[in-house]
């Protein structure tokens, strides 16, 4: 006899046992088809073997009349139905429907949201489960396109709506990836094209100026009266409409005071230097307090010094020649 292959046990400790029991039995039926197991009693025996010890303890507590098949019922189907009713009693139906109505799509994908709706709807004993799932899918999903699709097509099937939702989510993901790639490329080339972009700005591009009354941005969004300094009196000049920190009179008075108290540009008195040079070059100078600047050629075989034609030099020459004229 061939050995019985391994099959996972049923987890009867976690939540949503009824919905998970339905999925477990559905997979087990595929197993029966794959191994060509058609006998009713044999299917029941394999089920009891695979579910595990904890689930078998629960099954043993079910009254025998609930697992005994009636006419036109198989032992396997009756047994599966009895276990499902044990996990999902009738007095919990209204509460399960309340939980079903509270399910919303938060951050998970549409596939996880749809799976939760199906599992919760399986415990609500709806007469038309697909219609209820469609209604909750439209109400609780995050996509506006899916909502619009469901509201515009009242006769849409659950299969068509969930496929549209999957397609919409996939396209949105692809667009986000493409947008991210575009942002990366823009951030890479932005420093290179910054100057060119500034030069290509249209001439009517709104330029920002600085308000001379409040030192803020100009023009003000709500007109001149929205200037913070419009109702303010300057504490320096006494005029209204500007802050003291930007008062023109205060700034001008400060500049004049700085010019008055400004130290000399150099420590050497240029006037004294010019007088010494003048005395050395012209010993017959009139000794006037008016000084003139001379350009004196230095060494290195340069041409002789050049005297500038000034009124002082001409007057000195005139007085030096006067005694000769008197003697003559």
UniProtKB/TrEMBL annotation:
<protein>
    <recommendedName>
        <fullName>CCHC-type domain-containing protein</fullName>
    </recommendedName>
</protein>
<feature type="compositionally biased region" description="Low complexity">
    <location>
        <begin position="260"/>
        <end position="271"/>
    </location>
</feature>
<feature type="region of interest" description="Disordered">
    <location>
        <begin position="255"/>
        <end position="328"/>
    </location>
</feature>
């Amino acid at each position: 006899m061939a050995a019985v292959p391994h099959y996972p046990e049923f987890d009867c400790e976690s939540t949503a046992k009824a919905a998970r029991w339905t999925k477990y039995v559905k997979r087990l039926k595929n197993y029966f088809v794959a191994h060509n197991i058609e006998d009713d009693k044999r299917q029941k025996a394999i089920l009891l073997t695979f579910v595990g010890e904890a689930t078998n303890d629960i099954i043993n507590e079910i009254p025998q009349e609930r697992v005994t098949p009636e006419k036109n019922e198989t032992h396997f189907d009756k047994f599966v139905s009895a276990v499902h009713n044990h996990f999902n009693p009738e007095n919990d139906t209204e509460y399960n429907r309340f939980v079903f109505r509270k399910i919303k799509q938060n951050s998970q994908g549409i596939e996880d949201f749809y799976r939760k709706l199906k599992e919760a709807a399986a415990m609500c004993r709806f007469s038309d489960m697909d219609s209820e799932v469609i209604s909750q899918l439209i109400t609780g999903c995050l996509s506006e396109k899916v909502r619009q699709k469901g509201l515009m097509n009242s006769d849409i099937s659950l299969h068509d709506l969930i496929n549209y939702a999957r397609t919409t989510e996939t396209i949105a993901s692809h667009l986000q990836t493409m947008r991210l790639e575009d942002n990366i490329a823009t951030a890479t080339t932005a420093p290179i094209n910054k100057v060119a972009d500034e030069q290509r700005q249209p001439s009517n591009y709104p330029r920002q100026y600085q308000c001379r009354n409040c030192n803020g941005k100009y023009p003000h969004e709500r007109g001149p009266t929205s200037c913070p300094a419009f109702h303010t009196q300057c504490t320096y000049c006494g005029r209204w409409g500007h802050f003291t920190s930007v008062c023109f009179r205060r700034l001008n008075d400060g500049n004049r005071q700085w010019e008055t108290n400004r130290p000399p540009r150099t420590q050497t008195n240029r006037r004294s230097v010019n007088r010494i040079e003048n005395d050395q070059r012209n010993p017959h100078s009139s000794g006037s307090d008016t000084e003139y600047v001379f350009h004196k050629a230095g060494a290195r075989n340069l041409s002789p010094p050049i005297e500038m034609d000034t009124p002082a030099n001409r007057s000195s020459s005139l007085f030096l020649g006067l005694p000769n004229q008197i003697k003559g």
